[in-house]
Amino acid sequence: MIIISGIKRNFSDTAVMSGRMMRHTFRSIDTLITVVAMPIMMLLLFVYVFGGAMNTGSIDYINFLVPGIVLFTIASGVAYTAVRLNNDVTAGIFDRFYSMPISKSSILGGHVLNSVVFNMFSVILVLLVALLIGFRPEAGLAEWLIVIGIVLLFTLAMTWVAVTFGLLANSSEGAGVFAYPMLALLFISSAFVPTESMPGIVRAFAEHQPMTPLIEAVRSLLMNEPVGNNALIAVIWCVGILIAFYIAAMQIYKCKAA
Amino acid sequence: MIKTDTAISVIGLEKSFKNVKVLQNINFTVRKGSIFALLGSNGAGKTTTIKILSTLIKPDQGSAQVCGFDVVRQPHQVREEISLTGQNAAVDGVLTGRENLRLIGKLRHLPDTNKKADALLERFDLLEAADRRVATYSGGMRRRLDLSMSLLGTPSVVFLDEPTTGLDPQSRITMWKIIKDLAHSGVTVFLTTQYLDEADQLADQIFILDKGKIVAEGTASELKKLLPHGHIELRFRNEKEVQTAHNLLGDYKVSLDGENQALIVTTDGSIKQMTDILNRLQNAGLSVAEFAQKLPTLEDVFLTIIGENQGKEYVK
Questions:
Q1: How far is residue A45's CA from residue B131's CA, in Å, rounded to a whole number?
Q2: Closest C-alpha to B29, from B48, B46, B45, B9
Q3: DSSP states along B189-204
Q4: What is the pLDDT of residues B214-262, one digit of tens each?
Q5: Cβ–Cβ under 8 Å, residues B83 and B150
Q6: What fold characterizes domain B6-219?
Q7: Which CATH code is given to the segment(s) B231-295?
Q8: What pTM did the predictor assign?
Q9: Interface test with B, best of A100, A106, A107, A171 (most B CBs within 10 A)
Q10: Is residue B206 a contact partner of residue B190, using CB atoms and an 8 Å limit?
Q11: How many Cβ contacts (< 8 angstroms) between chains A and B?
Q12: What is the ipTM of this complex?
């Protein structure tokens, strides 16, 4: 009985905390611009400006591009999770929550849940725009479900990276900085151009960092092509990052709380 | 084990951060329904004490009980009894005042949160601004909202970490009234402050904390008695005269206020000593530009005690 009421309390506290962060997200114009409008601008830029010069073989450039844009949306989206979390830590509202009789996990849980929900929301908007301008996925239901699973896993992994940096940074300006190397990883991957076009060392790096198998897996699934072992490699990367940063974040969280 | 009229009891509390001793052997008890002030300058250890008592951090040694519950072993029970209003108003600027209160109400799983929120908004004169985002509030309004959020769960002990720092004089007085009313309603108030007049105005019991140690304790009037009466201030026209006078009065307890070219001399308050001092200055051909007899304030107590404390440190 006690355990059940504890779990119930945990869920309701997390829901309340997450509701608070939703309000934060949707009331912040610059979040909406950065997280939703920016990826859409990137999509349009790459399709209509650079796209003509890209040689992606048999696949239409927009179909090639969409998986990379989806990851771009998430990588820039979680930066705001870090900034919001850091604001809570530095502004003292965390102390208030800590000193209240609420489930401890709901404090971070609210941020994590909001991050996942909001990033899915922006990914859906980006996909809708992509469909409008000619994105034509050929995936069946099973492929879509796997894609959704991988994207969710990636969002969760990136969210815990964000939580770690959000807890660690001394100021909210610093909290989002980790997003830049993430975006750099995306640019040096098969997100925007095929890796075959890159010089040797860069190509070797691009093909062995986590973003490329993720993109390749999502791209193959969406275009209903053989996935190979990319999906497995992508999942292993995401789970590895998720576990490493979850442990790191919880460690820092405990230090901050005690 | 603990007397029922005790709200907080602290025994031998110690805390260090990276080998720096922040709190050393802190002992005190706070009576239920009283206002307790921990007075000290920045870095004295006030916030650390509040953080330990409100279960945010754990002490290295010693024990602390709030409402009979141990802060280390029974943090959950302690949290049910207390509310913390931290140094920076811990309010959510993106939400409105009403939403802030409702958030806390929901987290505390209170029945009829909305009604209670409205009642508090009215009590703290925030009803008009209730549906505005807190980011648009003034400092005083933020503090009032902060405090009303703390009171939503009807706590029996309220911790206030520097509740009036940075407030304008009017908001300060409003805050004081709120704090006094709180204590009247039976809530125990534990506050920290660096303002002596604040402790003087509010507290039933004052503990002075300096560099992690309690250096004095008592009521405001008890602390004032620590200073001898007849405390005079002599102001001179220039640096040289101040120095000469300082030497002349070497056998008195004299402190130098170089900035104002003044000496503060402690006497036993007798006419005999007073004439002696003035005679010596007269004979040396020094003219006093300004003369004032001062009653001891809490500030003098504070400076005297901390001054003595520092003196001892230097000897070591």
A1: 41
A2: B9
A3: EEEEES-HHHHHHH-S
A4: 888 888 878 777 665 667 888 888 888 888 888 888 888 888 877 778 8
A5: yes
A6: Rossmann fold (3.40.50)
A7: 3.30.70.100
A8: 0.78
A9: A100
A10: no
A11: 64
A12: 0.81
